[in-house]
Amino acid sequence: RTEYGSWWNQTGFLSIQMESLRAVTTVSQLAIDGVDCLTWGPNDLLYDIEAHPKHPIQTVDDCVKHALDQLRGSQTRISFRSYDHKLRNKYIDMGVTVLMEHPK
């Protein structure tokens, strides 16, 4: 049992799914010790963006940029579902380190 727990502590990772502007704007509070990755799906986040038309952040890309800026110097990484391998370099250049996309 303890061997199994040790294996997970060394091998597993913890990712938190963010689906709201509030989560994006408080991303540094989610990036606590032990959280390896923060992620979201762009379509889920768009529901909240559309529900808040006067919020200063109005695009998914602006959310990505904001989160990356807030996490600068943190060990927590950003994962993003671009769905399209053609967008890979765009998000890598922004600083995203984990990409989820459809296979070619």
TrEMBL record:
InterPro entries xrefs: Pyrv/PenolPyrv_kinase-like_dom, Pyrv_kinase-like_dom_sf
A GO term for molecular function: catalytic activity
Protein name: HpcH/HpaI aldolase/citrate lyase domain-containing protein
Native species: marine metagenome
